[in-house]
Structures are given as structure tokens and as C-alpha cells.
Amino acid sequence: MSSASLQPDSSSDATNGAVTKLFAVLLAGEYSAFYRLIEESKMAPDVASQIAIARMAASEIHHFDVLAAQVSARGLDPTASVERYRSVFDQYHSATTPKTWYESLVKAYVGDGLAADFYTELAGVLPGDAQTVIAQVMSQTSSSHFAREQVTAAVTRDPSLKSPLTLWGRRLLGEAITHAQWVLAAEEEVTDLLFAEAASLQGVASFFDAIAAEHAKRMSDLGLG
Questions:
Q1: Domains of the chain from N-terminus onward
Q2: How confident is the model over 85-99, as pLDDT tens digits?
Q3: Distance (Å, rounded) from C-alpha 46 to C-alpha 107?
Q4: With a threshold of 0.90, does the pTM exceed it?
Q5: Among candidate residues 26, 25, 21, 92, the one with its CA nearest the CA of residue 63
Q6: DSSP for residue 122
């Protein structure tokens, strides 16, 4: 066996380290999303709506547990990971605090969809084992469908809701992109992992353009296109 074959694979180590950091970031996001859903569920007008939000929160905590196990297995402390990254998600939620129940529903539906879109756009650049985990925790949940149904019904009953909720949806997208860029700027390893094949900043811009295009389709599904 040659001495070269005994050398550690630095490329593989870098990829594993970046995946671990990505999982840690997503873990903090799930933590923040869970508690924000609980807080915003206080605006729910009836028991059925409260139960629907509770199911979404249950999905978030399940995703949290999956990621926490991955982070721990990779040598990081889940609690420390949440403490490190939660501030950027808390800032996003502070900037997008809904004032009405329908704003809360739009946020729940859009947030669930953005996570699914993020996975779809990045699946091809992640290692196979990481793709499996991300598919499990970032796929769109059926629990958000009730939000779409309530919003579309409300807009049909009262068309005056359409304009303010459309503006709200644009704000949600803008804030999500801004805060995602903050994370990428702070964690170069994660950026390199996700955009290694992008020859320039144009590649990153194209990624966010694709996310925006999917967001537009989702807003149309809400009757807000």
C-alpha cells in the first residue's frame, strides 16, 4: 500500500464538515419554526385551526429530532448548534410577525413551501446520505394544505384581502432570501458545498431566482398571484 493511500481525503473531510454545519443551521431553523408556530397559533379563531397548527408544529419537532440525531452523530452538540444559529432565524421571525390570522396562514404555507423548494434546488449538489436526510426534513408537509384552503376561501369571500396578503407574501420571500444570504455569508464552508459548481455570484443569484419563481407559483395557488 502506498503512502499516498494512507493520506486522509481532505476533500471528503471538508464536505462532511460542511454537511454537518448545514444540518446544524437547519436544526436551529426547525427549533425557531416550532416555537414561532406555537406563538402564532394563538391567533387561530377556532379549535380546528388550532389543531391544524399543532400538527404543523409536531412536524417541525419531528424534523428537529431527525436533525439533532444527525448533528450529534457527527460530533456536534445539538443544543450548542441551536444557540449558535438561532439568532438569524429569530431575526427573520421578528421581521415577519403576522398581525392577522390570515397573515399567519400565508406565512405558514409559504414557509413550508420555501423549505421544500430549497431542498429541490439543492438536492443534486449534496452527497447521497445528506440528500436522504434533507428530503426527510425539508419536504413540504400536508399539514400546510389547510392554510391554503383557508386563505383561498377567505380571498374568495372578501377580495379586499388579496392586495395586502399579496404584499405580505412578497415581504416573506424578501426576508427569507435576505436571511439565507446572511447565513451563507457567515458560513463559507456551507456556501462552497452548495454552490461549488457555480462559476460566479451569478450562480447564487440564479438559485434565488428559481426559489422566487416557485414562490410565485405558490402565491398563485393561494389566490394571491
A1: 13-221 (1.20.1260.10)
A2: 999 888 999 999 999
A3: 18
A4: no
A5: 26
A6: H
